[in-house]
């Protein structure tokens, strides 16, 4: 993937295994968000292929990829500030609504039944998981940044994804919020109700090494390595390019 003469991604090969948390790390400008944008369809790479569950999806539009089971959050919070928490999360259920114009207009029959079922799912599953019952009816734009991050995660979960792309979910959070978000990610990945495969972009190396099954390392558009957290920490090239001796010590401490 290139922008003019700048190669944002070159020769990348990444395989995300079902059921794992696969993290992507690298310095600023390494191409991490560009890779996420290629996977969920915001960008279309000039070369190479993107396959999802055996299907080539290079020409599949972003909303169609959502229907296939790919959902994401963004590096900068993308919520509707004037809408309530509940309404923001409800937006993520749109692909699961099957009722037609007539029943939807009059709120009868299938439409009413769908609304009840989807509301139950949101309230009993997502809101409970993310511990945001007490703010469900508050305008999202009035909430602290850390809670807005939870709302965005909740909206992504409302799609009931099989692959969840998390672009720096811990950025801008305080220590307590980081611990909560890390716990939510583990629950989403491990709990029987969810079992969601996660592709995580993150700068917090302590969290990355604790949560990840595998870690993919980028450096200015090029792949350095793809391995277990232990293998990544022992790779001299990774340490030189990104971790640094002090960060490496901190992740092992």
Structure characterization notes:
The protein has 253 residues and is of the alpha/beta class. It has a domain at 2-69 and 161-252: 3-Layer(aba) Sandwich (Rossmann fold). Helices cover 43% and strands 15% of the residues. The chain contains ten helices and ten strands. The strands form three sheets. The chain has a six-stranded mixed beta sheet with strand order 6-7-8-3-9-10, sandwiched between helices. A two-stranded antiparallel sheet has the order 1-2. α5 packs across α6 (145-158) and α8 (205-211) crosses α10. The protein is globular.
Overview in brief:
The chain contains ten helices and ten strands. It has a six-stranded mixed sheet, sandwiched between helices.
Give the secondary structure arrangement, pairings included.
Elements: E1 2-3, E2 6-7, E3 21-25, H1 32-40, E4 51-52, E5 55-56, H2 62-68, E6 70-73, H3 85-90, H4 101-106, H5 110-130, H6 145-158, E7 163-167, H7 175-190, E8 197-201, H8 205-211, E9 214-219, E10 222-227, H9 229-233, H10 236-252
Parallel strand pairs: 3-8, 3-9, 6-7, 7-8
Antiparallel strand pairs: 1-2, 4-5, 9-10
Helix pairs in contact: 5-6, 8-10
Descriptive tags:
15% strand, 253 residues, 6-stranded mixed β-sheet, alpha/beta, 10 helices, globular, Rossmann fold, 10 strands
Task: Return the CATH architecture of the domain at 2-69 and 161-252.
Answer: 3-Layer(aba) Sandwich
Number of helices: 10
Shape category: globular
CATH superfamily of the domain at 2-69 and 161-252: P-loop containing nucleotide triphosphate hydrolases
Strand content: 15-25%
Distance between the termini: 37 Å
Lateral arrangement of strands in the main beta sheet: 6-7-8-3-9-10
Main beta-sheet annotation: 6 strands, mixed
Q: What is the CA-based Rg, rounded?
A: 19 Å
User: How much is the average pLDDT?
Assistant: 88
Helix content estimate: 40-55%
CATH C-level category of the domain at 2-69 and 161-252: Alpha Beta
Structural class: alpha/beta
Instruction: Please provide the ordered H/E string of secondary-structure elements.
Output: EEEHEEHEHHHHEHEHEEHH
Report the CATH topology name of the domain at 2-69 and 161-252: Rossmann fold
Tally of strands: 10
Q: Which spans of ≥5 residues are poorly predicted at pLDDT below 50?
A: 246-250
């Amino acid at each position: 993937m290139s922008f003019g003469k700048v190669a944002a991604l070159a020769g990348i090969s990444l395989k995300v295994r079902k059921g794992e948390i696969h993290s992507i790390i690298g310095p600023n400008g390494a191409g991490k968000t560009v890779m996420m944008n290629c996977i969920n369809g915001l960008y279309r790479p000039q070369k190479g292929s993107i396959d999802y569950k055996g299907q080539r999806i290079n020409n599949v539009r972003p909303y169609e990829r959502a229907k296939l089971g790919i959902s994401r959050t963004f590096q900068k919070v993308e919520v509707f500030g004037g809408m309530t928490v509940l309404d923001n999360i409800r937006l993520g259920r749109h692909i699961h609504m099957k009722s037609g114009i007539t029943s939807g207009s009059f709120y009868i029959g299938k439409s009413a039944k769908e609304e009840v079922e989807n509301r139950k799912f949101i309230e009993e599953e997502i809101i409970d998981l993310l511990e945001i019952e007490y703010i469900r009816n508050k305008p999202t734009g009035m909430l602290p940044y850390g809670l807005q991050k939870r709302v965005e995660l909740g909206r992504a979960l409302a799609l009931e994804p099989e692959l969840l792309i998390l672009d720096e979910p811990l950025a801008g959070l305080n220590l307590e919020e980081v611990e909560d978000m890390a716990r939510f990610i583990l629950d989403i990945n491990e709990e029987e109700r969810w079992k969601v495969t996660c592709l995580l972009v993150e700068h917090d190396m302590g969290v990355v090494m604790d949560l990840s099954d595998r870690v993919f390392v980028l450096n200015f558009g090029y792949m350095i390595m793809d391995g277990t957290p232990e293998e990544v920490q022992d790779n001299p090239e990774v340490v030189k390019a990104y971790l640094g001796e002090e960060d490496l010590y901190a992740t092992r401490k």
